[in-house]
Write a structure and sequence with these properties.
Elements: E1 7-13, H1 18-27, E2 32-33, E3 36-42, E4 47-53, E5 58-63, H2 66-73, E6 78-81, E7 83-84, E8 87-88, E9 90-91, H3 93-104, E10 109-113, E11 123-125, E12 135-141, E13 144-151, E14 156-161
Antiparallel strand pairs: 1-5, 1-6, 1-9, 2-5, 3-4, 7-8, 10-14, 11-12, 12-13, 13-14
Length: 174
Amino acid sequence: MNLKLNKWYVLYVKSRSEKSVNDLLLKKGIESFLPVVKTVREWSDRKKEIEVPLFKSYVFVKIKSAKDLHESLVIHGACAYISFGGKYAIARDHEIEMIKLLLDTGKDIQLSSFDQLPAIGEIKTIQRGALQGIDCEIVNVNNQNNIIVRMKSIQQNILVKIPMSYLYQLPQAI
């Protein structure tokens, strides 16, 4: 497979090993990114807010040399780099920045798989708020206003709730 340098590759890791793999990558000096979201887990005796990976079993790794590619694969819990059609899945820099931006909003974020997109939907550009400038697909889920931001490089979607008013440009005051 063709290796491109200074790109974000998608490392597949063992289930529930995302945090430890990310920590080990950082200790080795390999730039990595593990997007996490907060969720409430409930047990019989208590509730607790915990952080879980946004993409289960995925850690994004910025490969700066062939050495980084190989060193990241020997880390305990790392399995393989994701590929589609014989080509490594590469997340674009703007997609990584978009994920960081979405996580910073503090909004409720959920994933939907790429093949579960609605058949119809209007594409809009968000006009206001922290997500301004992002193209999204509008869907109606459980009578709530949601948008889907597509990440074609890893065939995933991010579902986030925003006010519908953010999709329309407000008139400028004179």
